[in-house]
């Protein structure tokens, strides 16, 4: 999953560059696709060059986690329309709500959810899991009022091309 690694590297680099702009760390430009292409040219691999170029071209630092990247890769592989990533819906519950995937033409939201979002651990901080679920339900209800449909999936679907294809088809995700 080269795309997963490069998406993550670009996202981490954007976050680092943002911290630098705020004066939290010394300034160094963020890693870009151009940097990756230049590095690939320097390495000049005997095999896999075209594949590496396709990975670099497909990457997107807006993918917030490996599950979103895997979903994006599957959506592409299965021939569905590419969604916009990390789209902001303003004034949702007194703030901005960001969604993982948005198909603007059909006003459809898609969200990848892994267990970490709802289980105990560092993602929750000191929040109670039940309050996280409740807040997410409120957020989803508010977003549903803004769009035609809202669907969630997790690792089990994203890892299975056959099941994910059926899921996206049944839910009306547009074809490319």
Low-confidence stretches: none
Proportion of β residues? 15-25%
Mean pLDDT comes to 89
Radius of gyration: 18 Å
Distance, first to last CA: 22 Å
Structural class: alpha+beta
Shape: globular
Beta strands, count: 4
Relevant terms:
16% strand, 2 domains, 176 residues, 4 strands, globular, 4-stranded mixed sheet, alpha+beta
Provide an overview of this structure:
The chain is an alpha+beta fold and 176 residues long. The chain has 2 domains: 61 residues, no CATH class; 96 residues, no CATH class. It is 47% helix and 16% strand. It has 7 helices and 4 strands. It has a 4-stranded mixed sheet with strand order 1-2-3-4. The chain is globular and about 50 Å long.
What does this entry show, briefly?
Helix content is 47%, strand content 16%.
Lay out the secondary structure.
Blueprint: H1 2-21, H2 33-43, H3 49-58, H4 66-77, E1 84-92, E2 95-103, E3 108-112, H5 129-144, E4 149-153, H6 155-158, H7 161-170
Parallel strand pairs: 3-4
Antiparallel strand pairs: 1-2, 2-3
Helix pairs in contact: 1-4, 2-3
């Amino acid at each position: 999953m080269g795309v997963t690694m490069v998406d993550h590297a670009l996202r981490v680099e954007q976050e680092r560059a943002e911290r630098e702009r705020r004066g939290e760390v010394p300034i160094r430009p963020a890693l870009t696709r151009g940097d990756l292409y230049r590095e690939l040219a320097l390495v000049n691999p005997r095999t896999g060059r075209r594949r590496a170029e396709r990975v670099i071209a497909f990457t997107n630092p807006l993918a917030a986690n490996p599950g979103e990247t895997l979903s994006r890769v599957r959506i592409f592989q299965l021939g569905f329309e590419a969604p916009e990533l990390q789209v902001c819906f303003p004034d949702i519950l007194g703030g901005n709500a960001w969604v993982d995937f948005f198909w603007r033409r059909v006003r459809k939201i898609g969200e990848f959810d892994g267990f970490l979002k709802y289980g105990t651990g560092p993602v929750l901080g000191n929040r109670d899991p039940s309050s996280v679920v409740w807040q997410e339900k409120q957020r989803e209800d508010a977003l549903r009022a803004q769009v035609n449909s809202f669907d969630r999936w997790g690792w089990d679907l994203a890892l299975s091309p056959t099941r994910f294809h059926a899921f996206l088809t049944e839910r009306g995700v547009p074809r490319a």
